[in-house]
Structures are given as structure tokens and as C-alpha cells.
């Protein structure tokens, strides 16, 4: 018996995707996904290949095995690193805080983060963050769930550009998106009326400014 229905459901749960969000990735309908998960139908082989490629899962395992959470989170180790490097030599290697990482660890160590490769270029250090419900954000935050936000590290030469811009604060377990405010030469990143972080020389490594956004269409 094929395990594709079980594995689609498990993939959705691990990746934090609704049936509709999962369907949108592969030009399907929510009803399609529901029928796969309830074993009323199976996806076409072309769709299975798309799912396998998108989530970097071997087709045989997607079809024949009931995948575990750990397997889904670690399939990137299944492929040869050299093959990956050949495709990304002209892209930027960026540390990435994603949902999967935060589900495993709430204490963020940038040196231990997974990396993604993307055509984003900046002279400052870069950081990619997946917008998810695991990271607090302002009530009027303009980005959808699952969008990947690219941030540049806040350095002295961009301090004058921070006013009203979206930012990200990261210090151990304390993570949040916010908006920069500048008053009387004091710089704050504000989440809401009760939580903010004040920028200074000692903690400047914790502050990032939004540089770009990637969202699946």
C-alpha cells in the first residue's frame, strides 16, 4: 500500500502548512489534498515527483515508507554536498532561521543555523528568517505566514535609514520582529507597547534590518 497520503499529511504538519497552503505549492486544490490524506485518491506521478523534489525526499521513500518527523527534518543530509555546491556557486550563502529549527531549539546560535542559497547580495552580513507563529510580530505585520524575510545586519553606516523600517531582534531565546523608531538619537526596535529593544554598542549584534522578501506565488 502506498504511503503517499500519510506522508503528505505528515509533511504538512511538520512544515506548518494547511491543506490549502500545501495545495497552492503544486497547483492543486484543497480537495485534492484532502482526498490524498483520506486515501480516496492518489496524486499523479508528476505531482509525486514535484513533491519529492520540493521537499528533497527520495521518491521511493515518499511512496513506500511512513516518514518520521526526524527523517523529514534531516533529508537535506541525504544528498551529496558537492552536487549542491555546483548549483549555488553564484548565490549567497545565508544563515536561515526556519520553523523546523525553532521547533527543535528555542535558543538560537547563528553558528549552528542551517543555510540557504539565494540571489541576495549585500556588503553586510545577511540573515534569512521564515515568518511563522513561533516568532512574535507586530499586530499590523505586513508579511504572510511562510514568507522568507532577508535581513542585513545593522551597522553604523545604515543607522540613518532605520526610521520606521521593519527589523528583527535575536538574542538567545528572545526573538521578535518589530519596527524601528528613532528619537533623541536613541534607536529602538518596537514589537508593541510593552516590548522593545534599545540599540547600543554592546548589543548591536542582535539587530537586523529588513532587506528583501521572498514569498511563493
TrEMBL record:
Keyword set, alphabetical order: DNA-binding
Source taxon at top rank: Bacteria
Coiled-coil stretches: none
Pfam families assigned: HTH_3 (PF01381)
DNA-binding listed as a keyword: yes
Domain HTH cro/C1-type: 8-62
Keyword Membrane assigned: no
UniProt xrefs under InterPro entries: Cro/C1-type_HTH, Lambda_DNA-bd_dom_sf
Protein's recorded name: Helix-turn-helix transcriptional regulator
Origin species: Sphingobacterium litopenaei
Amino acid at each position: 500500500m502506498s504511503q503517499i497520503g500519510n506522508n503528505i499529511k505528515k509533511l504538512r504538519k511538520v512544515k506548518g502548512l494547511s491543506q490549502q497552503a500545501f495545495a497552492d505549492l503544486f497547483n492543486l486544490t484543497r480537495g485534492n489534498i484532502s482526498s490524498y490524506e483520506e486515501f480516496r485518491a492518489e496524486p499523479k506521478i508528476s505531482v509525486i515527483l514535484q513533491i519529492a523534489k520540493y521537499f528533497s525526499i527520495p521518491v521511493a521513500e515518499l511512496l513506500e515508507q511512513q516518514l518520521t518527523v526526524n527523517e523529514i527534518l534531516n533529508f537535506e543530509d541525504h544528498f551529496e554536498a558537492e552536487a549542491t555546491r555546483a548549483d549555488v556557486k553564484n548565490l549567497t550563502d545565508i544563515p536561515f532561521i526556519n520553523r523546523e529549527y525553532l521547533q527543535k531549539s528555542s535558543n538560537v546560535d547563528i553558528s549552528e543555523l542551517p543555510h540557504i542559497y539565494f540571489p541576495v547580495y549585500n556588503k553586510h552580513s545577511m540573515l534569512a528568517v521564515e515568518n511563522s507563529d513561533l516568532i512574535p510580530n507586530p499586530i499590523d505585520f505586513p508579511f504572510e505566514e511562510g514568507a522568507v524575510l532577508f535581513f542585513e545586519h545593522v551597522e553604523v553606516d545604515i543607522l540613518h535609514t532605520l526610521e520606521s523600517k521593519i527589523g528583527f531582534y535575536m538574542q538567545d531565546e528572545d526573538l521578535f520582529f518589530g519596527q524601528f523608531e528613532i528619537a533623541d538619537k536613541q534607536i529602538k526596535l518596537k514589537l508593541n507597547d510593552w516590548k522593545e529593544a534599545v540599540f547600543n554598542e554592546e548589543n548591536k549584534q542582535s539587530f537586523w534590518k529588513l532587506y528583501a522578501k521572498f514569498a511563493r506565488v
